[in-house]
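Example complex used in Figure S2.
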Amino acid sequence: MSANRPPPPVSTMLMRGLFEENPIFRLALSLCPAVAVTTAVKNGLMLGVAVLVVQVLSSMSGSLVKHIINPKIRIPVFTLLIAIWVSAMDMILAAYFSDIYQQVGLYVKLIVAFAIIISRMELFSMKHSVVPCFWDGLGMGLGFLVGLVLAGAFRELLGSGSIFGIAILPFKPLLLVVLPAGGFFTIGLIMAMFNWVDVKRGHKLPSGGGGAHG
Amino acid sequence: MADAKVVSTHEILVEGALPADATTIRLVRSSDADIPLAVVSVKPAAQPNSFMLTTAETLNKQDHYQLTAQGVDQPWEIAPSPLAMVVSVIIGSALINNFVFTRYLGLCVFFGVSRNKDTAIGMGITFTIVGLLSGMIAWALNTYALEPLKLGFMQIIAFIGIIACLVQATDLILKKVNPILHKKFGIYLVLITTNCIILAVPLLNATSGATFLQAFGLALGAGVGFALALFLMSCAVEKVNMAPVPMVFKGLPVAFIIAGLFALSFLGFSGLKVA
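Predicted assembly (489 residues):
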């Protein structure tokens, strides 16, 4: 378990999180925030950054302590590690960005339960040392961030006719997408788009359709 | 103490002696006792020894009010009946603010286990029971330990710890006491830890400073709402699996579109009110 395999090159680790194993659209992990906070780009960006930081720190600290914890209790230990970083992040955001925090606060706290973070610790941090864990965490976090910003931009542009709160269109093309239901439609459509790009590039889709469950 | 209750949006029925002069009566919301609500008139009601108060502001049957009058020593406390409050919280969290369709929580597990009806029912039952248990324990811990000791910043760590321990304990106890039941529901227990709803319930309760009954209602309503959402979704997914769906939409994308349609229909519950 602790035998270090040579880590893959940095570029692979970064790109994997962004496209091939995009946490939202490919692995279909941590979907709650993807639907919930993406009514505006700003909210998506903030939560994305929070997840990125927590993911990188948790992956690295998980890698640091992997030799001293008994493998049987690794899940509770990892959960506690994540909870510590999330508590810190939660307080920082509440102190410095209180206006956005009002809207997404609950979801910042819920980062603890995001499956993507613990699954990266389990799959990657247990086998690799600290530096590769940093790159892997960064790639996954960036993939998550990009997913949230993409969905946020789509919904804000179509629903409110603006980006970052700046009006771009003089009208609201499709009010439906900022409604609760619109989040589900948006993620479904973007997921289908990822599948479409995959098919065009000549890959085969997984048998259960897009977004195999991790 | 004499009885008083809100009967309609602008009327309060008060039992006991009340001065006929509306200006000597002071009505406040218990939550902000500094702001008096204007009383327009006081009239004798149809029942003996009781009065009907009319107010300018709209009253809410779920709110707590306090009524005092000059020359009367005892104030009237106006509170909704506990049962009505619990029912309204349960309906609110199960239907109006359904955790899956309007708060978008627990989606990973929701899409994972809604592929056939049997697993959906099993997960729904297991989740409701464990969620209720962990919600109540977390509420007790928060009210009697974290709040008095000013350890609010430990909330996340404490709640996730409780949930992890409870799930492990339930797993062990069930395995010993009833292996058949464990064989059937054990697999769902493991999944519960990664469900954000189970963590969101204590966090929401802690943020709103809920009473015991409100916490109970929210925990139960969240479980029932999640079970309902799972069951509905599994019924739809079983049908869609036999339909010719475009290739790029197969699997999760079409599941999202269905969930979106359910969410649209759940918007209809937003008009629901418990009298």
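Residues 23 and 29 of chain A are 6 Å apart (CA to CA). The radius of gyration of chain A is 18 Å.
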